[in-house]
Amino acid sequence: VAENNCKAEHIAVGSEILLGQIQNGHAQNISRILADKGFFLYYHSAVGDNLDRILQVYRTASSRSNVVIVTGGLGPTEDDLTKEALATFLGRRLVLSQESLERLEDFFTRRGRVMPPANRKQAMCIDGGELLDNPNGTAPGQYVVDKGVYYFLLPGPPLEMTPMLKNHVLPRLQQVFPPKHLESRILHLCGIGESDVDARIVDLTQKSNPTVAPLAGEGEMLLRLTATDTAERSARELIGETEDLLRQRFSRYIYGVDDETLPVVIGNKLRHLSASLSFAESCTGGLLSSMITQVSGSSDYFLGSVVSYSNDAKRTVLGVDADILEGYGAVSAETARLMAEGVRRLMGTTYGVSVTGIAGPSGGSAEKPVGLVYGAVSSAENTVPFKMMHSGSRRQIQIRAATRVLWELWRVLGR
Amino acid sequence: VAENNCKAEHIAVGSEILLGQIQNGHAQNISRILADKGFFLYYHSAVGDNLDRILQVYRTASSRSNVVIVTGGLGPTEDDLTKEALATFLGRRLVLSQESLERLEDFFTRRGRVMPPANRKQAMCIDGGELLDNPNGTAPGQYVVDKGVYYFLLPGPPLEMTPMLKNHVLPRLQQVFPPKHLESRILHLCGIGESDVDARIVDLTQKSNPTVAPLAGEGEMLLRLTATDTAERSARELIGETEDLLRQRFSRYIYGVDDETLPVVIGNKLRHLSASLSFAESCTGGLLSSMITQVSGSSDYFLGSVVSYSNDAKRTVLGVDADILEGYGAVSAETARLMAEGVRRLMGTTYGVSVTGIAGPSGGSAEKPVGLVYGAVSSAENTVPFKMMHSGSRRQIQIRAATRVLWELWRVLGR
Prior knowledge:
By secondary structure, the first copy, chain A, is α/β, with parallel strands linked by helices. Chain A contains 15 helices and 17 strands.
């Protein structure tokens, strides 16, 4: 259902995609980010680093869409043809942007290097178009409008592309194609499986305003609610009602809304409580700490961790009793308890949180299979251990266990 | 470079892909499986469940490719239009296949069910074409040749699609387009920037056999070498020569081949030396440990880490001298040195490796800007600190710093 007359499509440029060496992750990412704001993609394409074939794809795209978003091929090498091909296709010249050139030279100077001559072509702008600032890399984006078609060229690295999509592309689309009023909200759930969620929202997923779409993540679930205004009700009201229903059904599992990931909501809660946190990690090997420290400002409440991968480290650094380690094993509620208490004491934090388990693929037994994980949350009042069972690859088990441990901590911290 | 005159492309049909609800994993999967056998895809496309748009995509595909592989949209519902659209596009009738109908009814009978009437349409075959048996589901594939274009329609579920690609599509392609022998190899580089690599391989990237293609990763670079047999030389020999040349030019930067990531090569080296490893992490917040422990069996050499995010943790857990911390600051070569030595002593490992820096976006100063990172590798012989300057977002700086630290460790361990 189109909310506006925007007909967008995405083109990924890069031979490595066509050879199957990398996943074309941008297609899904861009579709999802735009759909959230009521802009829909009608086609995805991918094409290699070949001038004739890129021109072919531009020809097809411009004949059927009015917004064309292209990713990749903006680098400094001769293989990077995206911008040059569009200039050729539109019959326009490439003009040096002095401002962009200075910004590029600055980028290299700040890193103590001289800009290689090859990078100069990144400062070229299609005549009549506009270069889009890229704060995270050397390749600026390109924006140009031609015969009613809006072209956006964005660099390939995801960490450069995504902010540019949000900061440059979306605002321009919203200006050119004012949407019907559309509102969307994402609820984050943890501690409950996909099929359990699906079974309990059958009535809601069949409604069309708002729509409720479940999305499975690693160790968590997202529910995306999207509504448009009707004559009687605002989109916000419609979403609010459905959110209330979902909160009644999934109260203990919903931990956040929109951009509120577990590390973010836990950080806010700890800051509010003036409390501090440390981890004792075994099977997650540092992942838990890495997730918490992805949030800027996490040093306000996160003091540090011990990755006690070996039994020696559990004993000597965390002070886990050797008899407990031998009697119950490293993967046990008892060891998890002593790890959490040990790291809390060592780091002097309000909360100490531990995780120990078998990430596999080797190391499992009949009694303690791959995927068995224990955790514990320790505070001044008490230490509460918990047990989990996860499936999947080694990496999936690590991610799912870390996510689940964060959820257990969130529950202890209270809403 | 075409190894035969097969010009293939892939079309994924399904609105859920365009909405970003699922990843179009088939595109990469099919590209990889076919490229392995010397067949290349020149375009990927995705289109929703809409007759007009599917016809538009068939028109474009048949004008530029001679093999068109379509996945999805072969189910029993009204939304499933892939086969019907192709019949319309080719101007051919759909004819009931009695054999396929019986096979379908059998499929349901074996599961103790009666075939719903809607499934009957799955037994319809495009006139002059051939249905392809699907042992893992109800939707047979469709094969049809029209005006020199070979069309393959395959069902969407990956566990049904992949065996059909291997058993039905590949043998037919190999018969129609006898392939040449093809060999490829990937070299991994770290410690050198993309433009520096590009500038030193201009002569090689212009050659066509083998081809040399650079790919930028986070904090590292890949060089992909691909060769085909000639009358005089085998593909393996051709690749070997170019690899030798590249190794002469980039000897100190090339750390691995094909699947050998830094955590893998470091693990192999440590195991070979019967050596052990620990980390003291500040700005990377556990990421370094998490990277090393993604490798199964890393407990053989990785004993543990301290994520010393606060200055207190650096002092009390790692024993970093308070005067050094105050005098030089937490982000300094001196602190990095004491952190590496401290964790090595604490964990009792052969090597202790540290990293401390400013990941940003806040916390930088004129003297110590965001992106400034120090590291050190400590062993029984000595402790060697090093300094880095990284750019990008908080997450990029963390990833690039961790990757660079692993590379410095790899250099210390020797080839």
